[in-house]
Design goal:
With 64 residues, this protein is mainly α. It contains 4 helices and 2 strands; from the N terminus they run ααββαα.
């Protein structure tokens, strides 16, 4: 998964205004206690991060 695809899915699920804030502030257990931004900055793939987001919140099947 490309990073642009990841962010498009985030925007579609959370809305453009909330997606970046959620990625910056919400700590996910599935990312080892990191936020989305921290995980991406530390080199986790966009696919791994998206899978952790999907485990944390209910995402529409078409976006999974």
């Amino acid at each position: 998964m490309r990073l642009t695809d990841f962010w498009n899915r985030m925007y579609r699920h959370f809305g453009e205004a909330y997606a970046e804030s959620w990625a910056k502030d919400y700590v996910l257990a599935g990312l080892g206690g990191r936020t989305v931004e921290q995980a991406l900055a530390e080199g986790l793939s966009a696919k791994q991060v998206w899978q952790a987001v999907c485990q944390e919140v209910e995402v529409e099947p078409r976006l999974r």
